[in-house]
Structures are given as C-alpha cells and as structure tokens.
Amino acid sequence: MCVVFISNHWSKLRPSDLINQISYYFFLKWDQLKKSINIISRSSILAKIQANMVGETIKNSHPNINIEYITSKTSGDLDQNLDISGGTTVGVFTSDISKKVEESDNSIAVHSWKDFPIVENNTTGIYGTLKRADMRDILILKHSVKVQKNIDQLTIMTSSPRRRYAIEKNLKDLIPLTFDKVYFKDIRGNIHTRINKFLKDNTHGIVIAKAAIDRILNNNTDKSDKNALIKECLKKHQCVILPLSIFPSAPAQGAIGIEVANKNKHLIKIVESINDIETFENVNLERQIMSEYGGGCSQKIGVSIWNKNNSKIKSINGITEEHKKLETFDLIETVHRNTTTRMSNAFPIGKSEQTIFKREESNKNSELNAIQDSLIYITRKNVLKYRPDFQNSCKLITSGVKTWKEAAKKGYWISGTSDSLGQAEITSMKSLFDVKNIIKLTFKNKFTTNPNSIDLYELKEPNFPKDIEERDNFFWMSPYAFKIAIKLYPSILNKHHSCGMGNTFEQIKEIIKNEGYLTPYLSYEHWLNKVEKSK
Q1: Do strands 473-476 and 346-347 pair parallel, antiparallel, or not at all (unpaired)?
Q2: What's 392's DSSP letter?
Q3: By CB distance 3.0 to 4.6 Å, which of 42, 80, 172, 222 could disulfide with 47?
Q4: pTM to 2 decimal places
C-alpha cells in the first residue's frame, strides 16, 4: 500500500494533472536514488580500504554519483569460535551482506572475492572487480627460528587446509632449517589481530595473504600504531613470499568482488563499467576449476591464473578429497606456438648442448659482503660459489625455485623468487621489504651494462653444434647467448625461437620483429616437452 500526502497546491489540481505531478515526483526520487550508491562491506580496516577503492573508482568514472559507506558484521565476524576450515561454513563472511544487497535498490557490496561462495545464490552475483593485487602468500618466521639450524617441531599459524598441505609438502626444501614435522595452529581475526596474536604467542610462523598486507600498508589514510606494528614485524622477522608455481593461492585471492542484486540492472551497468576484464576472467576461471573439485575453504587445493606476454599461466597444486594429487604449472594459451618441430631439428637438446660457454668465476665476496639495505637478485646458483656472507639488512631473491632450493642447501635464507618469470616480477617485493636498491648478481655482458648489477662470472668460448644452421627451433637461456649465436650464424634469425618469460623474452623481442618467430615458455623443460610431443 502506498500513502500519498497531498499539499494544498496539489489538491487544487485536476485528477489528470495530479497523476502527472505525482508521477513526476516519484521519477525525481528514483533519479536521485540512482545517483546515490551505498557500498556495504565488513568492518575491518582491510574491508573498508577495499570499499573505498571501489567507491573512488566509481566516482572517477561517474562523478555525479554520491557514495555512502556502510559496514556490517557477518556471522563469521560475530562467532570467533567458528571452524572456518570445514565445508559447512560457506559464505560466513558474505551471506549476511548479500541479503542486504538483495533487499536494497541502491546498494552494492565489496568483498574479498575469495570469501564469496563459488556456488551461485540466484539472487545476487559478482559483476565486477578492480585490478588484482599480488596473489601470493607470505610466510613470516620469527627471528629466533632463523638463528637456529635444528628444531624438533615447527609451529605455524594458519586455518587453511590448502596452506597446510603446501607447507608440509614444500617447506623443508625452501628454508635452511632441519625439523621433524610441522604443527599447525588455527587462527582467526583481521590482519592486525593475527599479527598481534603471532607476536605474543610462542608459535614460530604465520601465513598471510600478501595482498592484504600490501593494501593496508599502502593506504595513506591510516597512520595508526597498528600499521607500525605490521611494519616492525616485517622488518624484524624473516618474511618468505611463497612462489605461485608450487604455492598457488585460493581462487580469487588478491581480487575484490563487487556484488550486485541480479534484478538491479542499473547498478550492474555501473559496476560493469569499472570492471577489470582480465582479472574478472581469470578469477572466474579459477573458481570454475575449483568447482570441479567441490569448491570451498575445506579443499587442500590452490588455483592461480594470471597473464604474461600474451599468455595465460595456470598453477594448480594440492590433493583432492579422493586423494588425487594435482601438480600443474603450465600455459593455458599462448600465441604463435610452434608444434611441428622434430627433436632432431631443435636446439639445445641434451646437457652438452645446453652448456655452450665456458664459465670463468670471480670471487667478489668483499664487495658482496659490504652491501646493505638491498634486495639481492640471485640469477644462478653458481653466483654463490664462494659463499658470500650477506648483511642482515639485505633480502635474497632467486630467479627460480631450483636456484632457491640450491641456495637453501648452502644455508641461505631466501625471501622469494621471480618464479622463472623475470626480474620484473620482484618489483613488488622491494616496497614490502623496505630496501633501497635491487642488485643483480649475474655475468659480464659485453652487449649491455647495468649499474645495479655485479658480474660474478664471464661466459667464454661459445661452442655451438656444427649443424646449428640446419636446426629450425631454438630455445635460448639468455639474450646474451642469442645475440652471440645470430652474430656468428645470421641465417638462424628468421627461424623459430623460444625462451623464458622474463628479460630474455623482452630483449629478443626487440630484435625479432615478427612475433610469429618468438614464443615464450615457462622454462626450458616446458619447451622441451612440446618438442618431444611433436618429434
């Protein structure tokens, strides 16, 4: 029932004019309603930051829209004793807010998308997202652990079955610490609460999403002591950024989900207008893959998908409820992939062809040991041949997981890796670790100079196979090897070339103008597998 109070002015109008006036009045009210949007989120600092990110993005695209922010407690927030690792708590951080969105004509909700149930609720849905933050997890280990070499039991705070499985499987190879087993301790609460519990507890480590840390610390509006606590924790203790190749995240980790009622076409259009399509497609693909295994936080499965060099990378790792192990790190799609080469026509094949240079190492430990407040990029295991003793203010990053494991065997604490995807992947680590410089430990290169690199070996006397000009598909470990080869054998330039996803690809791309002649792969092994399939 609708009750209308008619003013003296309106009471003098004819019935037909009265109807027109009332219609116009409600049109104005509806038009005002469309120009005002309520953004509902949880009440944590991170949730408010994410809501403001969405609100500011909407305002930038639609300056006439007024944004109001509303916070709401969910059942997951109210019941701190709830076991969220089981399969019966789906939507505990979103369902209460979803009901409010469903019942409102001008409300949307902003979630950490990984909290939103994979199974659709038929009344609301995620219609947009912003550009995704870093998907990776961070393992923080107390400094007291770092100074030890042996420990009976390592205790780590996390309620995630996915994180527990990946840590049990991989951690022994990544840190220079001998331990018998890992014991896990459940933890709840927002980021500040978790960090505080970790610092006051006698546990050794905690796992947290890097995106949450990044967003909180990059939020210039919050200068609270709580953020100072996080910064001090990261500075004082050992932080390990876990690689996506073997530690894929939960589907949608690092992504913001913008929820709208299915019936609200007007708000859907607004949200779709700010949607980051690449992130949206990748997250939905992750959620689709996870749905094949049941979905939910109870799964011991990580799924991460992201784009690089016109390719889509997929990492899946975990174990299903039927105890089927999942281990995938590959390209979903790429452009100009050559699959017709026989192995006899490819280079390099076999270990002898992979080692085309003689290496002459240099001992520069006095220079390396003096470096301070820097992120040191270890490109190959041989740059640690003379075992430099780096300053505690430095953070060590490796080019790939293999180099990480070799460094850990030598007693080095590694803070992360570019995962064989190139030095550009470590830029986001610099701000997290609060270091001044990135210094690359590499080889002497006569083609290019880098003031932020230290040459620890020289490549001499290239030895290519005699029939190299008859080969038609090449994989290059470095741009240096490629440049030497085309200088000696210019005829191979117009044949098909492949390489890794990072700096090698970027430099070779500058020389090979035809994209059809260059294909990036995750590694030499991935390329070789494609060649073997087509032999």
Answers
A1: parallel
A2: T
A3: 42
A4: 0.88
